[in-house]
Amino acid sequence: MSVKGVEGSGAKAPSSGAPAEASGAPVPDSTTGPLVDVRDVSVVFRKKRTLAAARQVRAVNDVTFHIAEGETFGLVGESGSGKSTTGRALLKLVPTESGSIKVAGHDVTNLRGGSLRRARRSMQMVFQDPYSSLDPSSTVAASIAEPLVVHERLSAKEARSRVNDLIEMVGLRASYAERYPYEFSGGQRQRLAIARAIALNPRFIVCDEAVSALDVSTQNQVINLLERLRAEFRLTYLFIAHDLAIVRHISHRVGVMYLGRIVETGPAERVYTAPAHPYTQALLSAIPDPRRRSGRIVLEGDLPDPARPPVGCPFQTRCGFVMDICKQRVPEHTAVEGGGEVACHLQTTGPTLAGSPLNDLVPTRATSTP
Fold first, then answer.
1. Same domain? 105 vs 227
2. What is the pTM of this model?
3. pLDDT at 179
4. Which stretches of the chain are assigned E, i.e. beta strand?
């Protein structure tokens, strides 16, 4: 993809032969296999103690999912569920304990040194905080040009020309290049961070809470920018967020994480209209909706200590449908009607749902409030 002269030039997205969505954006292409393939990935953090046993935290536990080229895969869950650690593990920013990660058919699980640096040309990240993701002592031009100088060895003149194009591409003026980060608003800084992320023409970008620090109107603008860039350059996103309304808007498919595990995946519309896991149902009930007839589902307590997870289903300590088997065995992933999978004993045991949504099932203990 060329980054030169796109903004305002009338350039069109590359054609893939696939039918277009209603918005005109290309639909994900799953015919050639996933661009990102994550299988049984686990991340373990260990902390040594002088007067007590070493503490081991399994932040990500046997996570498996895939993302097709041109697709946005949303990853949601409470704080501490392992979303950001999963995104960082995919880019090798944190070490993995086990499992495999493939991007564009290349196994990046065990890459080190120069091989990892070369692989990162096609994998980039937009961080959560635009105020700390840019070097306050460098101009915007220097920050955006750094990957161009390191990876492509461009001259100062060539790098400056590319930087100007990138800044205009994200909706800002090229004349802003010599300013420092403190001279910009939060939304402008995040646009500049996006410009830096696409500088090397990546195929895959992890957006880690990329709009959570912005006000609502600015969030919409940045989301629209990400959507436009995806459509024009067939980018592939892992979009991590806790705001489920935003995730529904931008994502093709959604994964729901709880205590380091993915408990449900599926097409965004199916997950939002017919959740198959009690945790997904509780998260969705927290979205303000005046049309909702049922009350909000309030989960009791906090996330369990990841260093001492409960035996059996990780959600059983807070679930309104808990059964005896939930306290004994971790549920397997089963197919869901309408697409996707869910890890819940309700789909296979007791009041068997067989992939159906939870909408008509009455909790075994009270969890709802008006």
1. yes
2. 0.85
3. 95
4. 36-47, 55-67, 72-76, 98-103, 106-107, 123-126, 204-208, 236-240, 253-258, 261-267, 296-297, 333-335, 341-343, 368-369
